[in-house]
Amino acid sequence: NVTFSCALTTPKEVLQVTWQKKMQTHENVGTYSKKYGAMITENFKDHFSFTELGLWNSSITLHGATLQDDACYICLFNTYPEGSVMNEICFHVYVCAEPKLEYKTGSKQLIATCFATGKPTPHISWNTNKGRVWKNETKTSNGTANVLSKLVLNETD
Protein backbone atom coordinates (compact mmCIF):
# COMPACT_ATOMS: atom_id res chain seq x y z
CA ASN A 1 0.00 0.00 0.00
CA VAL A 2 1.13 3.53 -0.69
CA THR A 3 -0.37 6.87 0.36
CA PHE A 4 -0.19 10.01 -1.78
CA SER A 5 -0.59 13.32 0.06
CA CYS A 6 -1.13 16.86 -1.15
CA ALA A 7 -1.37 20.16 0.71
CA LEU A 8 -2.29 23.66 -0.39
CA THR A 9 0.07 26.05 1.39
CA THR A 10 -1.50 29.39 0.47
CA PRO A 11 -4.96 30.27 1.78
CA LYS A 12 -7.55 30.05 -0.99
CA GLU A 13 -11.22 29.22 -1.20
CA VAL A 14 -11.17 25.55 -2.24
CA LEU A 15 -14.38 24.09 -3.65
CA GLN A 16 -13.17 20.59 -4.45
CA VAL A 17 -10.06 18.37 -4.44
CA THR A 18 -9.67 15.98 -7.38
CA TRP A 19 -7.16 13.15 -7.75
CA GLN A 20 -6.31 11.94 -11.26
CA LYS A 21 -4.15 9.23 -12.79
CA LYS A 22 -2.09 10.66 -15.63
CA MET A 23 -2.24 8.43 -18.69
CA GLN A 24 -2.78 9.37 -22.35
CA THR A 25 -5.64 11.38 -20.87
CA HIS A 26 -6.16 12.15 -17.20
CA GLU A 27 -8.50 9.67 -15.54
CA ASN A 28 -10.31 10.77 -12.38
CA VAL A 29 -9.54 8.60 -9.37
CA GLY A 30 -11.68 10.46 -6.87
CA THR A 31 -12.97 13.78 -5.58
CA TYR A 32 -13.75 15.41 -2.26
CA SER A 33 -15.93 18.44 -1.58
CA LYS A 34 -17.87 19.67 1.45
CA LYS A 35 -21.09 19.51 -0.55
CA TYR A 36 -20.78 15.97 -1.96
CA GLY A 37 -18.23 14.34 0.35
CA ALA A 38 -15.63 11.80 -0.81
CA MET A 39 -16.19 9.77 -3.96
CA ILE A 40 -13.86 7.27 -5.65
CA THR A 41 -14.74 6.61 -9.30
CA GLU A 42 -15.96 3.14 -10.28
CA ASN A 43 -12.72 2.09 -12.05
CA PHE A 44 -10.70 2.71 -8.87
CA LYS A 45 -13.21 1.80 -6.11
CA ASP A 46 -11.54 -1.46 -5.08
CA HIS A 47 -8.04 -0.05 -5.32
CA PHE A 48 -8.08 3.42 -3.71
CA SER A 49 -9.51 5.07 -0.61
CA PHE A 50 -9.33 8.55 0.87
CA THR A 51 -7.21 8.59 4.03
CA GLU A 52 -7.30 12.33 4.70
CA LEU A 53 -10.33 14.43 3.85
CA GLY A 54 -9.81 18.14 3.67
CA LEU A 55 -10.00 21.01 1.25
CA TRP A 56 -6.40 22.13 1.95
CA ASN A 57 -4.93 18.70 2.78
CA SER A 58 -5.82 15.52 0.97
CA SER A 59 -4.47 11.96 0.97
CA ILE A 60 -5.46 8.86 -0.95
CA THR A 61 -4.15 5.35 -0.43
CA LEU A 62 -3.49 2.87 -3.20
CA HIS A 63 -4.08 -0.66 -1.91
CA GLY A 64 -2.07 -3.57 -3.31
CA ALA A 65 0.01 -1.73 -5.93
CA THR A 66 0.61 -3.55 -9.21
CA LEU A 67 2.62 -2.78 -12.34
CA GLN A 68 -0.48 -1.10 -13.82
CA ASP A 69 -0.31 1.52 -11.05
CA ASP A 70 3.07 2.80 -12.25
CA ALA A 71 2.07 6.33 -13.27
CA CYS A 72 1.98 9.95 -12.22
CA TYR A 73 -0.93 11.07 -10.06
CA ILE A 74 -2.27 14.61 -10.00
CA CYS A 75 -3.83 16.38 -7.06
CA LEU A 76 -6.03 19.31 -8.17
CA PHE A 77 -7.30 21.93 -5.76
CA ASN A 78 -10.23 23.59 -7.52
CA THR A 79 -10.24 27.12 -6.09
CA TYR A 80 -12.52 30.09 -6.54
CA PRO A 81 -12.02 32.45 -8.31
CA GLU A 82 -8.40 31.59 -9.30
CA GLY A 83 -9.03 28.13 -10.80
CA SER A 84 -7.03 24.93 -10.35
CA VAL A 85 -3.81 24.55 -8.42
CA MET A 86 -2.13 21.21 -9.05
CA ASN A 87 0.68 18.98 -7.87
CA GLU A 88 2.02 15.86 -9.57
CA ILE A 89 3.34 12.79 -7.75
CA CYS A 90 5.03 10.08 -9.81
CA PHE A 91 4.95 6.52 -8.51
CA HIS A 92 7.16 3.77 -9.92
CA VAL A 93 6.70 0.05 -9.41
CA TYR A 94 9.82 -2.11 -9.64
CA VAL A 95 10.09 -5.86 -10.05
CA CYS A 96 13.20 -7.44 -8.56
CA ALA A 97 14.90 -9.81 -10.94
CA GLU A 98 15.26 -13.40 -9.80
CA PRO A 99 17.82 -14.84 -12.22
CA LYS A 100 17.78 -18.49 -13.21
CA LEU A 101 21.06 -20.10 -14.20
CA GLU A 102 21.46 -23.35 -16.13
CA TYR A 103 24.49 -24.96 -17.68
CA LYS A 104 25.32 -27.85 -19.97
CA THR A 105 28.64 -29.52 -20.57
CA GLY A 106 29.69 -31.85 -23.31
CA SER A 107 31.94 -32.26 -26.32
CA LYS A 108 34.63 -29.96 -24.88
CA GLN A 109 32.17 -27.11 -24.41
CA LEU A 110 30.33 -25.37 -21.56
CA ILE A 111 27.11 -23.48 -22.26
CA ALA A 112 25.84 -21.37 -19.38
CA THR A 113 22.44 -19.72 -19.72
CA CYS A 114 21.09 -16.99 -17.43
CA PHE A 115 17.50 -15.74 -17.63
CA ALA A 116 15.98 -12.86 -15.63
CA THR A 117 12.74 -10.86 -15.70
CA GLY A 118 12.45 -7.50 -13.96
CA LYS A 119 11.76 -3.80 -14.02
CA PRO A 120 13.96 -1.95 -14.76
CA THR A 121 15.62 -4.19 -17.33
CA PRO A 122 17.96 -6.64 -15.56
CA HIS A 123 21.66 -6.50 -16.41
CA ILE A 124 23.43 -9.84 -16.85
CA SER A 125 27.21 -9.97 -17.05
CA TRP A 126 29.71 -12.81 -17.00
CA ASN A 127 32.91 -12.53 -14.96
CA THR A 128 35.22 -13.79 -17.69
CA ASN A 129 36.92 -12.44 -20.77
CA LYS A 130 36.89 -15.83 -22.48
CA GLY A 131 34.26 -17.45 -24.65
CA ARG A 132 31.40 -15.97 -26.62
CA VAL A 133 28.44 -14.15 -25.08
CA TRP A 134 25.01 -13.89 -26.68
CA LYS A 135 22.26 -11.71 -25.21
CA ASN A 136 18.60 -11.06 -26.04
CA GLU A 137 16.24 -8.56 -24.38
CA THR A 138 12.48 -8.37 -24.88
CA LYS A 139 9.96 -5.99 -23.33
CA THR A 140 6.66 -7.41 -22.13
CA SER A 141 3.23 -5.80 -22.24
CA ASN A 142 3.20 -5.34 -18.44
CA GLY A 143 6.33 -3.16 -18.46
CA THR A 144 8.88 -5.75 -17.38
CA ALA A 145 11.78 -6.95 -19.50
CA ASN A 146 13.08 -10.47 -20.12
CA VAL A 147 16.84 -10.86 -20.52
CA LEU A 148 18.45 -14.06 -21.76
CA SER A 149 22.23 -14.35 -21.88
CA LYS A 150 24.36 -17.31 -22.94
CA LEU A 151 28.04 -17.86 -22.38
CA VAL A 152 29.70 -20.46 -24.60
CA LEU A 153 33.14 -21.63 -23.51
CA ASN A 154 35.17 -24.06 -25.61
CA GLU A 155 38.06 -26.09 -24.24
CA THR A 156 40.36 -24.03 -26.45
CA ASP A 157 39.22 -20.66 -24.96
TrEMBL record:
Q: Where is the signal peptide?
A: none
Location in the cell reads:
Membrane
Q: Which residues form the Ig-like domain?
A: 1-75, 81-157
Coiled coil where? none
Keywords, sorted A to Z? Disulfide bond, Glycoprotein, Immunoglobulin domain, Membrane, Signal, Transmembrane, Transmembrane helix
Q: Which GO terms describe its molecular function?
A: cell-cell adhesion mediator activity
One GO CC annotation, please?
axon
Q: What is this protein called?
A: Ig-like domain-containing protein
